[in-house]
Design goal:
This protein has about 130 residues and is mainly alpha-helical. Helix content is about 50%, strand content about 10%. It contains 4 helices and 2 strands; from the N terminus they run H-E-E-H-H-H.
């Protein structure tokens, strides 16, 4: 019975002994982070006070990551129906009033309208930019 109690006490005290030893040694003096490409191997630390942390960064440092390589299809068939309708209306609008087109009698009113809209948008942008300045 006493031997069991003695063994249990030793097992409970062993983590505390290990923690005391770690406190005496302290944290490592140097931690080095390395990015690995392709099949590169993680370098070994020459100093026992150094920890080397390696991470696999992919194929090559000069290559675009896979998630950005394939761009979405932007052909007419891949666009939403509303975008296609807006494009058709814009193309067919030439010559109509407020179209800003050299063709037809109503094109000049659209140019003035576009200039006024652009002026108003520039004014809004300038006020927003000035509001950000402390």
């Amino acid at each position: 019975m006493i031997s069991r109690t003695l063994i249990a006490a030793m097992l409970l005290a062993s983590p505390a002994i290990a923690q005391d030893k770690q406190k005496a040694d302290g944290p490592p003096k140097r931690i080095r982070s390395v990015l690995l490409y392709n099949d590169e191997q993680c370098p070994k630390s020459a100093d026992p006070e150094e920890i080397v942390v390696c991470a696999n960064a992919g194929d090559s440092p000069y290559r675009i990551p896979k998630q950005f390589r394939n761009q979405p299809d932007e052909s007419a068939g891949a666009q939403a129906w509303t975008n296609r309708v807006e494009t058709v209306e814009q193309v067919n609008r030439a010559g109509l009033p407020n179209s800003c087109s050299p063709v037809g009698s109503g094109g000049q009113t659209g140019c003035t309208r576009q200039m006024l809209q652009q002026w108003a948008q520039d004014r809004v942008n300038r006020k927003a930019k000035e509001a950000q300045i402390p």
